[in-house]
Amino acid sequence: xxxxLSKERLSENVVKLEMDAPLIARKAKAGQFIIxxxxxxxxxxxxxxxxxxxxxxxxxxxxQEVGKSTFQLGKKKAGEELADLVGPLGTQSEIENYGTVxxxxxxxxxxxxxxxxxALKAIGNNVIGIIGARCKNLLFWxxxxxxxxxxxxVTTDDGSYARKALVTEPLKELMESRKIDRIVAIGPAIMMKxxxxxxxxxxxxxxxxxxxxxxxxxxxxxxxRCSVDGKTKFACVDGPEFDGHKVDWDEVLKRxxxxxxxxxxxxxxxxxxxx
Amino acid sequence: MPRPxxxxxxxxEPEIRxxxxxxxAMGYSEETAVIEASRCxxxxxxxCVTGCPVEVDxxxxxxxxxxxxxxxxxxxxxxxxxxxxxxxxxxxxxxxCEKLCVLGKxxxxxxxxxxxxxxxDYESKFGEIKIPEIPPQTGFKIAVVGSGPSGLTVAGDLxxxxxxxxxxxxxxxxGGVLVYGIPEFRLPKTIVAREVDYIQKLGVKLNTSxxxxxxxxxxxxxxxxxxxxxxxxxxxxxxxxxxxPGENLNNVYSANEFLTxxxxxxxxxxxxxxxxxxxxKKVAIFGGGNVAMDSARTALRLGADEVYIVYRRSKxxxxxxxxxxxxxxxxxxxxxxxxxxxxxxGNDDGxxxxxxxxxxxxxxxxxxxxxxxxxxxxxxxxxxxxxxxVAIGQGANPLVASxxxxxxxxxxxxxxxxxxxxxxxxxxxxxxxxxVTGAATVILAMGAGRKAAKAINNYLKTLK
Lengths: 275, 464
What we know:
The complex is a heterodimer. In chain A, about 25% of the residues lie in helices and about 30% in strands. Chain A is α/β, with parallel strands linked by helices. Chain A has two domains: about 1-90, Elongation Factor Tu (Ef-tu), domain 3 (Beta Barrel), CATH 2.40.30.10; about 100-255, Rossmann fold (3-Layer(aba) Sandwich), CATH 3.40.50. In chain A, the strands form three sheets. In chain A, strands 6-1-2-5-4-3-7 form a seven-stranded antiparallel sheet. In chain A, helix 4 (about 140-145) links the parallel strand 9 (about 125-135) and strand 10 (about 150-155). In chain A, helix 2 (about 70-75) runs parallel beside helix 8 (about 260-270) and helix 5 (about 170-175) packs parallel to helix 6 (about 190-200). In chain B, about 35% of the residues lie in helices and about 15% in strands. Chain B contains 17 helices and 16 strands. Chain B has helices at about 15, 30-40, 45-50, 60-65, 70-80, 85-90, 95-100, 110-125, 150-160, 175-180, 190-200, 220-225, 255-265, 290-300, 320-330, 435, 440-464; strands at about 140-145, 165-170, 205, 230, 235-240, 250-255, 280-285, 305-310, 335, 340-345, 350-365, 370-375, 380-385, 385-390, 395, 430. In chain B, the strands form four sheets. In chain B, strands 3-2-1-4-16 form a five-stranded parallel sheet. In chain B, strand 7 (about 280-285), helix 14 and strand 8 (about 305-310) form a beta-alpha-beta unit. The chains are: A alpha/beta, B alpha/beta. The interface of A and B includes residues 69, 222, 226, 254 and 255 of A.
């Protein structure tokens, strides 16, 4: 059991929860994730860690309401408990002084890119942030990202706020105009695919974090498998971070759709109040 | 009076059970149990006991059954085997106790497993749970990593020696393979819950959703949390794939994932439970062991029209228990022997549509002593399939070993441990079960747990 200490709605469908999880918060490193299970009938869902504080024992998770489980999680209130909170899982980000690094966060990916950005800045990199979302409503943590970057570029797909562009546009301009040593990108798979395609011609190392379907998340089931450099990897234990230039993106995208029909059934039932 | 023949256990009819997840076998009645027990010769030097990894006093408990003392019989078994309801169901008795039964030379052996199951179920139904007297606390703290058969055995034994025992289980439910792996129709989960409950009543503290190697490491258990000894029973837990093209297509599962979704996550009851599972119409299972049979029979119960076991050797080489093969055959599972999958075929959306196979023939025996399957030239063919489960075994999950200092593993990643004591290369750390032997049986894991508990007790004496 793990208690929700506070809840904040960052935008229409983006929710932040602060969890009381001292053991996990003590260990959590940038890039890692946790598994939560809401109740006895719940599924195990992986969520990347947005922040952690080893002093207070608070673990921050941010998620977007997209399916049955996340909408259900979004209805939870401070003081309520989740059946399970497991972690920290996966490997941690490689944090070194590379020189100039661009951290790209797309949509809900802004949450997990934040601790990585913070760590890369703390170790001495010149850090440029790019955060983007479909529209203004889905943007969050602009202020927090500004704190941990030397420059921050904000985009929206529809131009409802800041620059109207996809994140790949300012990314390309930066690579054209300056020497960039490393790129870390987290967001929807389709965004990470296009970031990887954009950076490939410039041959700049590009790290992505795959949010695949998982069950146990300790290497036992293989639900999260993906092809990296032609080899099968388990995102839960070998990742979640991989070299974006070597990921088989079409496979990642297809696998992410595997339960599309079941997800619709579950969500409909939930919206009708049957579950 | 002539000896009665070995008594069958009533089972659900195949055409009915193929559509439900209820237990297939229904157990002996009191009358049948007494008749079956009366077949036992109560040998002075019982061979059956030597075939049991935990040396249950088989004639001892059977003579109690004969007298109708069923609860006493169950308690007699529990002196050496804490999980009789589980072992009575999933032990391969035909290769152990029953294989050595003297009666088996001329007729059928005594149905030891069925009797064990009967008395264990009888006790849980009619007996009071009897907690043995626990000696005063010794002040020693022991961590048990994993709550499968070996971990539960070690924890139960050490709690009864008066130590403070903490189990750390990575999943949200205790029981390990008994819960995520073996299906409900072969081992009802209420039975596992009952056994775990008993271990907790002995004073064992259970921490679920706690991943040793991540939440805490073994090193930290010693250095920060003051544990005096650690037992590693975390299981094999790394699924093997064939390495053929198409294995990452949608609707290709490892047996671990397929069974975990259905058993642990109760995906067979989606959407009442949130975890989904794909229902195949035509399903292929790769492999021929018990896990392959479990996967095939699960796919059938989920609603498949046709389920194939695709196995590259012949029926004689199937590693699964005879009983499970028979159950699968009765339920209509189709066996494709001497068939080797070469490729899994997919459509544009990335879902499985078929498997390309090759006909095999058996050649000379290989290192395992089984005849090696050899491809037949120009024999490739395609079977239309929309769901594949790969059940070809598993390797060592490195999560615990790789985060523990001074712990020796072998070239396959299994933890190196003394066969008699479970002692590893690191003092105070013991290991047993599948993480040492590779995927094996419930009872072998329990046997290893029993030995390790003794060795840990001896080790703790040296700390005083």
